[in-house]
Amino acid sequence: MATSRTTFTLDDDLAERARQMGINISAAARQGVADAVRAALARADREAYQRHPERPDSFWAEAEAWGEE
Fold it and tell me: Are 18 and 25 in contact (CB under 8 A)?
């Protein structure tokens, strides 16, 4: 997987507490961004579905009937 460097700002006290607790700040940041992206994608999917909800389609009822013959 290709990666790219990025810089972000972190409160000094939080960074120090993370170091004291042995937390890998880079790994935690990667996980946080991945979680945020998944949440944003899920939110976008829900919003798209709300704008264009599924509706019954008579084609599928007819197509299923063909299989029963």
Answer: yes
